[in-house]
Structures are given as C-alpha cells and as structure tokens.
C-alpha cells in the first residue's frame, strides 16, 4: 500500500516533465537553420584573436549543417547552437564542461570562449575559415580537419 502511494505521488510529475520535454524538443527541431555548405565541418582552430594556439593543444570547432556547434577548447568539451540569421553568424550559447587544466591552457580557453561569443560573420581565405567580429576584425582562424 505504501509502494502504491509513493508510485502514484511520483508518476504524474515525471510524466508531465517527459511530455513537456518531448514538446520542447519537437518544437525546437523545426527551427534548426541550415548553415552555408562552406561553413559546416570539423575545424581545427589555428589562431585565437591573432595568437597561435598553444603547441600540443588540440582545439576544435565542429559546425553542423543542422545548427549545432561542438568541439574541444583544448581542455574542456563545448556544445551548443550555431545559426545564421539576417546575415549574422551566431555561435552559442555554448555549454562547457569544467575540467581544470594548466593555467596557460585555461587562459587560452577563456579567450576562445570570449571571441566565439563575439563572432558575427565569416570569410574564407586561402582554404581557411576566418571568423569575424561585428566590427569586421578577425577573431579566429581555422582549417578544415581531414
């Protein structure tokens, strides 16, 4: 009898949560924007705000045509959204794991996340992807990973 009361008490909120989550996911799925074909891909970050990535630190940005962004800061994993709307490129908001790494790698990660938040446009340059701020300045340079 106690088990039946506990089961009845927990079931409705859980079912409501699951139904709400399903509706949220279904509603969000229809709003994913396709990225331009030359932007989607798995990119190796070479420079952050004009500074080369630290030697031996693998920094990646994966942009999918379905509107998701992910990758590695060189220390932590990041994931979120990417979209182009009204001629403006927006990466984020990004969720990032919180693993600790050496101070230089953590500083590079901080700068990476800062400049990703400032991205507003991009251009291709000699096969590289250059992410630009709203003012038009290069904030990140990337090459397509094989």
Automatic annotation (TrEMBL):
<keyword id="KW-0732">Signal</keyword>
<dbReference type="InterPro" id="IPR038670">
    <property type="entry name" value="HslJ-like_sf"/>
</dbReference>
<dbReference type="Pfam" id="PF03724">
    <property type="entry name" value="META"/>
</dbReference>
<dbReference type="InterPro" id="IPR053147">
    <property type="entry name" value="Hsp_HslJ-like"/>
</dbReference>
<feature type="signal peptide">
    <location>
        <begin position="1"/>
        <end position="32"/>
    </location>
</feature>
<feature type="domain" description="DUF306">
    <location>
        <begin position="40"/>
        <end position="142"/>
    </location>
</feature>
<protein>
    <submittedName>
        <fullName>Probable secreted protein containing HslJ-like protein</fullName>
    </submittedName>
</protein>
<dbReference type="InterPro" id="IPR005184">
    <property type="entry name" value="DUF306_Meta_HslJ"/>
</dbReference>
